[in-house]
Amino acid sequence: MPVPYSSYIPRVAIVTGGAQGIGHAIVQRLVDDGVDVAVNDVASKRDLIDKVVEEVRQKGRRAVAVPADVSSEADVSEMVNKTASELGSVDIMIANAGIFPFSQFLETPTEKFDKVLAVNARGVFLCFKLAALQMIKQGRGGRLIAASSVAGMHGQHYLTDYSASKFAVRGIVQCSAIELRDYGITANAYAPGVTATPENPGLPAEERAKLGPLGSAPQGNAEDLAAVVSFLARPDSWFVNGQTINANGAFFCT
Fold it and tell me: What angle do CA 177, 178, 179 make, to 5 degrees?
């Protein structure tokens, strides 16, 4: 029997790349929505992870630190298991972690291309797959949400590897949404345009000019993206499934 979407209750989320930037804003927004959070980032950012965990607890919600490399299946499995064990469930997976390098197409080393795909695409696949297995075990549905990009909607200067990885995210989202809908699990993505964060307030005008059309794009902030994720994580978003939501200030429209 299919699991009804109405059985989903957003109790616990994992946010990858949650120690700073858009991920940090997503953590804060979900906490304000009444969700407990497992905060992930790479182990080298453990101090930042712990700081965010403390911020969550100060707001009266439960939190746990789950440092992991999202391109490692063993790490992601441990992250999901620790979250379920310490917070009681995994109801929302926010596969936000990613790397954003610049290089010209002809100067992009194969090793760099492989690394970007490993983190940005393989990482989403692993987070979705292992979280979905936990959600199916729980039997009450869930939400899988990933970071794509405006560069995952159409190509950009100097972003061949990044763009390829973000196009891949859209494919993972569409296929997983179709296969998991009978379990009451939805899969969607958000596609940011140029987004300012406290750690990255934006490029100087002379650097933006080098990026062609991307350099003149409207610029949002991390909270704007967190608002989109907040909607996708809610029970009443159930009919939005297999989609990539553009959030780029009309820089690119579909």
Answer: 95
